[in-house]
Amino acid sequence: MLDAERFLREHEPFNLLTPEVLRSVVYNLQVQYYQKDEVIFQEGSAPLSSLYIVRKGVVLLKRGSEVLDYLQEGDSFGFVSLLTGERPSSTAIAYEDALLFLLPDKVFKKLCKDFEAFNQYFLKKLTGRFERKKEESSSLLERLARVQVKDLNPRGIPTVGENDSIDQVINLMAKADHRAVLVKFKDGYGIITERDIIKRVLGEGKDPRETKASEVATFPVIGVDERDYLMDVLTLMSKHAIRRVVVFSNQQPSGVLEDRDIILYESKNFVFLFKEIEKAKDEESLAFLYRQTTKAVVEFVLEGADPERVGKYVSELNDRFMKRAVFLTISRLGEEPLVPFCILVLGSEGRQEQSLKTDQDNALIYRDLPIIDFDANEYFKRFSEEYIKVLLKVGFPPCPGNVMLSNPEWRGSEREWEKRVSSWVDTPIPENVLNSAIFFDFRSVFGDRTLADGLENYVHKKIKGKSLFMGYFVSEGLKFKPPLTFFKGFVVERSGEHKGELDLKKGGIFPITHGVRCLSLFNGVSERNTYDRIRVLMERGILEENFGRDLLEAYRFLNMLRFREQADKIIKGKEPDNYINPEKLSKQERGLLKDAFRVVENFQEFLRHSFGSMLLE
């Protein structure tokens, strides 16, 4: 159970316990595995007898149909029932396969009794839940009172004439996946919904070809202005018991707002967003969801979320968009691929460390099988070009360096990729080293994962013993120095757009990311996430434990500052970037930033010592 001891030591509140007590806790742990969708405990069931700790996987807490929380590694749950002795007020479900630690009730209560800090941790969480419950209603009303209809980006709605047939209406709705259409009358507008067609046409046995739109439409339509406040719209919808209203701009219909849109706008729950992304049927729907996820992530950051978790959430959301984009692309092509293929994400997305400043870094690999009348190269050329168009419409900006699968240099068969990697490693010119740094964090996001696994094995075999390449590769990360003066002041831009600011990515985040990547590749570490890589390097003794912890915390702090600054810029309508003005930080944060940069300096010295004569400096 050494893994359990290390794991608990890295998560609150167990990191508050002494090593001796922690070992005792581990001795009393039970391990339980739950399959995806398996119920862990039920709302209203008998009071719980254990504290649950997520070791791996994801757990969902629900009350009825309402999603309460989304729990990942290190999160504890079930403590409300343990502290109150009451039946659980929610249902816990394994959202994906999950491995849990179970800490018996008696041990949990003894820890609460003997360790005040441990007890206070859970009491604060319990108190916070009660306070949020009381404030939830009023805060929601206040928020709705400030939001205008136009803020929700109402979806467009098609218009038909009053003499058009219901058969034409059905075809129009099916073609663009609309749930309703407007009907233009001489003196205003009516509306026809899917339900109207089922009840008033099909249910009554009428012929859609002989039935006019005017015979089915509800007239007049209930509408709102795009400048109306959401609170007033909800009141209107409740009064008329309707699920949608037509939105007008300058007295002309501009879209439709459904109850689903309002629910989604108010939802901060990532599981809800995941499900909606998986159901999206067109680029327009995905684009709407992409805008909503950006808002949700910004709020998540400003609430003080752990940057490691933020990066994984953003990457998980992006993964879902990319997966859904594959299905839309194949649908638009009207032709399925006849050979296995795999879409790869690279760089920060590959490491699951995506920031709020995102772009496309992706590639494609396929198995080139001899199939009659199927040219894999030609098919994936068309697929890639269409796929990138879909992502652009969704909202993913293009990669400035054109590292996208629409670029033939970033797609190919297994054999072509092996040749490409071999060329990069054998000829470490600057361009090849840069390509390697971008590519070597690749991760499968869709398709046949064995293609990605095979390529990963090839990369590790190819790099092994290549001291010349490793020298160039490591040196790339040593080019960027932490922005500290000799007397440990900050080095900032003296002119231009970023005058008085420093680049967190170049000065700290990239040197850590790339240095840890070099150590991982050289030592055969398969993890891609920088946080995970550091932990494995510590476990293997490659990084001394205290130094590894300093590196983890420095990386976490730098990313926290970057995320917070990016979120603030997004709220102000600015383009997020990696710059920050140190003078706008508190005195304590400036001190911590200097400490983080000093850790980066020490890490670069460690790399110089570790790779020694391989380096080109």
Query: Sheet with the most strands?
Result: 4 strands, antiparallel
Structural class determined from secondary elements: alpha+beta
The counted number of beta strands is: 20
Biggest sheet: strand arrangement: 1-8-3-6
Question: Mind telling me the C-alpha Rg?
Answer: 28 Å
% residues in beta strands: 5-15%
Describe the protein in words.
By secondary structure, the chain is of the alpha+beta class. Helices cover 52% and strands 15% of the residues. It has 23 helices and 20 strands. Strands 1-8-3-6 form a 4-stranded antiparallel beta sheet. α1 (2-9) packs across α2, α4 crosses α5 and α20 (504-522) crosses α22 (545-571). The longest helix has 31 residues, at 116-146. It starts with a helix and ends in a 6-residue tail after the last helix. Mean pLDDT is 86; it is low at 130-142.
Task: Give structural attributes.
single chain; four-stranded antiparallel sheet; 52% helix
What would a concise description of this structure say?
By secondary structure, the protein is α+β, with helices and mostly antiparallel strands.
Q: Layout of SSEs?
A:
Blueprint: H1 2-9, H2 19-28, E1 30-34, E2 39-41, E3 50-56, E4 59-63, E5 66-71, E6 76-77, H3 79-84, E7 91-94, E8 98-104, H4 105-114, H5 116-146, E9 159-161, H6 166-176, E10 180-185, E11 188-193, H7 194-202, H8 213-216, E12 223-225, H9 230-240, E13 244-249, E14 252-258, H10 259-266, H11 270-279, H12 283-302, H13 307-333, E15 341-345, H14 347-350, E16 362-366, H15 376-394, E17 411-413, H16 414-426, H17 430-439, E18 443-447, H18 449-463, H19 467-478, E19 502-503, H20 504-522, H21 530-539, H22 545-571, E20 579-580, H23 587-611
Parallel strand pairs: 9-10, 12-13, 16-17
Antiparallel strand pairs: 1-8, 2-7, 3-6, 3-8, 4-5, 4-7, 10-11, 13-14, 15-16, 15-18, 19-20
